[in-house]
Please model this.
Amino acid sequence: MKTESWVQTVDELEELYDEPVAAAVTKEVDQLVPLHRAFIRQSPFVVLATNGEGGLDCSPRGDPAGFVHVEDSRTLHLPDRRGNNRIDSLRNIVTDPRVALLFLIPGIGMTLRVNGTARLRRDEAIRAAHSFRGKLPATVVEVAVQTVFTQCPKALMRSKLWDPESQQSHDTVPTVGQIMDQITNGQFGGEEYDANYPAHAERTIY
Model:
């Protein structure tokens, strides 16, 4: 394939795009202003991106709105709730502290992006501050904020992410069990897994 088909340098990339919109530059700041903090307090869902020796990871995190606690204008606390124990994101943070967060609020097109560095807190006082239903997180991710900026709603508008008419069901979308059956050539027992998962999730969610 001709090399002309590929963008190989930053200069080549910048030739393809106009200058950044002025507001897109102005909105990036190095700390959380009060309205950023209000957005985070109303968000029940964040995507955590990390990088480490094992590669990249992008992990969804969710809880009742406000579960990511704003300690101050430069510090966030994110409890690590019970999961599958792969701990890919946490392994990455131990070896490479750089993180990126994307906060979403159902029905709202704007998102909030936070970049910074993270470390894992395991002291009991911090964990106890983030207990839920009597369960403490094993660790709390403490994020030192470096940059903050809002993302315009175009992507969510184009995808119609919050449009009720865009919602789908597993009548048309593969389930975890179906995918696992395909991966294991039918040895996983996907139908039983899918049938039992709602009750399993309710027992083990925290």
Notes: DSSP finds eight helices and seven strands in the chain. The mean pLDDT is 95. The longest strand covers residues 140-151.
